[in-house]
Amino acid sequence: MTELDPDVLIAVCRRRPQALAELVARFQAPLYAFLSFLCGPEAAPGLFVETWRAVFRRAGNYAGRAQAARWIFSIARERAAGKARPAAPAAGETLGDAIEALAPDCREIYLLRECGQLQYAEIAETLRIPLESALERMGAALDALRPRLEDSVG
């Protein structure tokens, strides 16, 4: 995902609906996928709307210290906090099923990296954890995914 033109966020700060539309268009697919995997497809639509409402409300507070993606995914993560993730189905495992089966802390890092396309340093900042922890959790996620997917393919 290419970084957003700073002028778009400035326009969102000034409450320009067209700028918000551009922002939503840029992040719609990865943000929705992140929320869907994190909290389940049933919760994703509501959380998606809540996230964008919060982005628009908080736009005036955006200080430009973080990239737009990290800022938006941080807001989404706040909105998703405490939402239960439904149990994954057992038969005919897909990548989605394997991701759902990950430990929550590993799943969140995997999704921020793969759906949100955040760098590991950005993930660590977003989650307020050391970079080493982010890397370890991503490694654990990949270690957990590998055999599950090899079993389903092989």
What does this entry look like structurally?
The protein has 154 residues and is mainly α. The protein has one domain (6-153): Butyryl-CoA Dehydrogenase, subunit A, domain 3 (Up-down Bundle), CATH 1.20.140. Helix content is 69%, strand content 0%. It is built from 8 helices and no strands. Helix 2 (17-39) crosses helix 3, helix 2 packs antiparallel against helix 6 and helix 6 (104-114) packs across helix 8 (131-153). The longest helix is centred in the N-terminal third of the chain and has 23 residues, at 17-39. The radius of gyration is 16 Å and the shape is globular. The mean pLDDT is 80.
Brief account:
The protein is mainly alpha-helical. It contains 8 helices and no strands. 69% of the residues lie in helices and 0% in strands.
How much helix, percentage-wise, in residues?
55-70%
Oligomer: single chain
Under the CATH scheme, the architecture is Up-down Bundle
**How many beta-strand segments?**
0
**Could you say which structural class the secondary elements and strand pairing correspond to?**
mainly alpha
Radius of gyration over C-alpha positions, nearest whole angstrom:
16 Å
Fill in the CATH topology: Butyryl-CoA Dehydrogenase, subunit A, domain 3
> How would you describe the shape?
globular
What's the domain count?
1
Please tell me the overall pLDDT. Answer: 80
- The CATH class assignment is Mainly Alpha
Continuous helix count: 8
Residue share in β-strands: under 5%
Largest sheet: none
User: H/E order of the elements?
Assistant: HHHHHHHH
Low-confidence stretches: none
Q: Give the termini distance in whole angstroms.
A: 32 Å
